[in-house]
Specification:
This protein is mainly α. Helix 1 packs antiparallel against helix 2. The longest helix has 28 residues. The radius of gyration is 17 Å and the shape is elongated. The N and C termini lie close together (about 5 Å).
Amino acid sequence: MTTSTAPRPNNGARLQVHLRETHAKWLREVHDTLDPAVASESGAWVRWCAVQHIEKKFYPRFEREREILQALRDHLGGIMVARLWASAELLVLLRWQLDQLASLCHRPAEFSTVTRKLRTAIEHWFQEVEAALNQVTWPELPDDVTHALLQLDGTKEVSHVTHS
């Protein structure tokens, strides 16, 4: 990995605290957008907005987080890497399925079912990420990973993590 100078949070702070705060913010946004789309009376516009939120806001963040975890795979252990992979793949597949169903406006019940599953998969992903990095402190991370993690909340420009 390449390194750069990045301001580090409190040296004793656990990464999990930052992730929980970031995930809570993302989850509120997901619920605010997806919950109305689950309702049986939701129209095509509400469903379309839900898909747009997932595609344009949530999914790019998820991909950045997934990239960061990929850079840390050697520190996570085989079982955790496998759990993260499975959780991520489920989320990717449900995202694809939701996108396909959005064009089928006459199938709101199916859209609702997949939306619920996707919402649960997102919650599960957050739990897996937080569990994987439960004991990690900021000083243990390479500078580029620290910088990328601090940008996850979307307040700074995106940076990519490089692999060694």
